[in-house]
Amino acid sequence: ACYPRDHSVHWRPIIIYKMEDRPGCSPEVRGRDENIQLSESDDVGKYLNMLKDMLNTNPNNEVFKLNIRIVESHSASGSTEDSSITPEAISDLMDLMNEDTEGVEPYSNPVLYYNLAVLFFHCSHYAKVEYLLSKLMSDSAFTDPASALAIKIRLLRIDAYVKSKEFGKAISAIEEFELFRSQMEPESNKSTSPGNVSPSFVNKVDEEFDSNLKTRLQMYKTLCCLSTRSFKLAKRECKLLFGLLGTTSHSHVGGMNLKAYQEYLRGNINKAINFIRAVNVPANVSKKSTKVFESTGELITAIAPNNEACCHFYLGRPLGAAFLFKKAILAFDAKIADKPLPVYATKYKKYQVECLYNFGVACLHAKDPDRAFHCLKGCIRHFGTNPRLWLRLAECCIHKHKATNEFDMQWTEEKKNLLLGIKCAQQDSPKLLFSEKFSNSDRNVQENSERNNVLPTLHYGSDCIATALALMKPIRNGSSVCLQVPPSNPLTSEGAITALHASILCAGAYIAISIGNFPMAVKRSRDLLGLPNIPGSYQYLGKQYLSQALLLSGDVVESIKIAENEEEIIDLGYCVSPFEGPTDDKRDECGEATWPNAGSHDARKPLQVWFPRDEPTAKMFAVYNRASILATSGKLDKADEVLRIWLTQTTGILLPPEFLMLAVYLHIQRGNISKAVSLLKEHSPTASIT
């Protein structure tokens, strides 16, 4: 409530994230003595029943089991009456691998391994996908660039890298694939069947597939460059992409969304919104590209509202963003309700949780901590390794405890009559009667000792901070660094990781002071100040929290030492780019700034102004805290001098109630009763004197 936060929601650029073919991936399904050609117009149920009859007559034939799963994956409904295709398909294929292929190299039955990799891909088990594909690619039989299966294996590998957000590996895989394809002889008619591989899997790639291959790879390149914030390179790749799309560029779903993503990252939010809205209108996009995306698990009616909501969030409109995030969630709900679902639709639930995460962040900034806490808590199962998620939960607890500290320093109607009266029956001992509504300080809140972990309490927030700090373990590889924060892109710069670490420690120090755990507050504050190159606002708050925690823990001398130079702090900057990651330039080729000065026509507005919001107010807080510490230690003259010097150097600032009461206290303790009464009359003219 009293500290700045890094702002981030998860954008989902649309691109073909999966193979063009579903499990099986062969255009043919093999029967006993005949080939069954499978197409969209075929009666899939008829072939499915035929294969089941064959399996009944020969229950140990793994080919029939495999082809049943292939037919089911091509089915319009995606499943048979049991409606549990994904777990069963994986179970069947694993049984085949463990029993029928025991001790056999993977390339002796590549179809089985490839289909299992596709199923794992749809279930988001990307590490397993990479493992299976690496075993297939290790064999020399799949080095022929004319082999359809070899091409599909490499494309699925690129898909897995992109989906797991390993963009560096994805770019390297794309370069390897282009080199692999360049070795293909255009007029080659030689046989390409390796070993026991079925001819149906090694046929030459048809012309349509070959013509779309460059476009697909170019989309991957563009997405990887944008995701790694290589803006100059991304701009060039985007131009090449639109050149390949030609006249269909403004009706292609993938191209339009990547263009919107580019404008979003450059800060041209209104342009990004226009591209997104154009994609969401069926009449503006080609039916072919729409069908491709919907057949690969990308739901346009949900992704478009999610991406538009990110734009509104960027512009400081959390309510509008929350509305659109909710719309995306409902779109996934409607699609998931249409059971049974095909294999590729298993990703809908994962995407829905990503939208739920975004919705929770938007609600937090829209000052609805209860709903935000409920949404974010539901994401723990999926994104529990993300330290930022635990920070958001802690922030919900803070906002539930105290929405803002600005109220303490404002002259509200209740505080205007802070002095009820001054009784002067005995001149040497006047008695001041203050209003009960003067102070709403709730420091050192004592909550239920049972700690209900379901509710957004400060004790639960403290546990969230501890979890977030435990997860702040970035992976370092030489000069590179990476911290996974799903569903967002990984943090790959020291600055972004340090900013997140500072936010966590700052929240932790505030919570520790609020619940009375002063030793922990001292530790959190010292750790915060020990971080390199943190924004000025965190340095300011770190010293404030440290001095307060030391005072409350009894170390007055050290507290005074820390507070001595607090009022000299003038840097309150805390705007850290929400687009984490290194950039290769400060300005792109057309002269437009990328961040933070991007989008002069779409200026980013602060989502929630924190208090103190300017340098004079921050200095006033620092002076007040220093004077309070001095007064507590008995150095009344020194405390009065600090206040007096600051007042002589400051004009045009209305003294807040807390500041005024400290000045009155010092006057009374030093015997200046008349000055205290005069000060009270000036700021509380309705007070009665008896």
UniProtKB/TrEMBL annotation:
Keyword annotations from UniProtKB, A to Z: Cytoplasm, Nucleus, RNA-mediated gene silencing, Transcription, Transcription regulation, Translation regulation
Source superkingdom: Eukaryota
InterPro entries: CNOT10 (IPR039740)
TM spans (from-to): none
Keyword hit for Lipid metabolism: no
Subcellular location: Cytoplasm; Nucleus
GO biological process: mRNA catabolic process; negative regulation of translation; regulatory ncRNA-mediated gene silencing
Chief site of localization: cytoplasm
Gene Ontology cellular component terms for the protein in this record: CCR4-NOT complex; cytoplasm; nucleus
Keyword Transcription: yes
Role noted for this protein: Component of the CCR4-NOT complex which is one of the major cellular mRNA deadenylases and is linked to various cellular processes including bulk mRNA degradation, miRNA-mediated repression, translational repression during translational initiation and general transcription regulation.
Family affiliation: Belongs to the CNOT10 family.
Name this protein carries in UniProt: CCR4-NOT transcription complex subunit 10
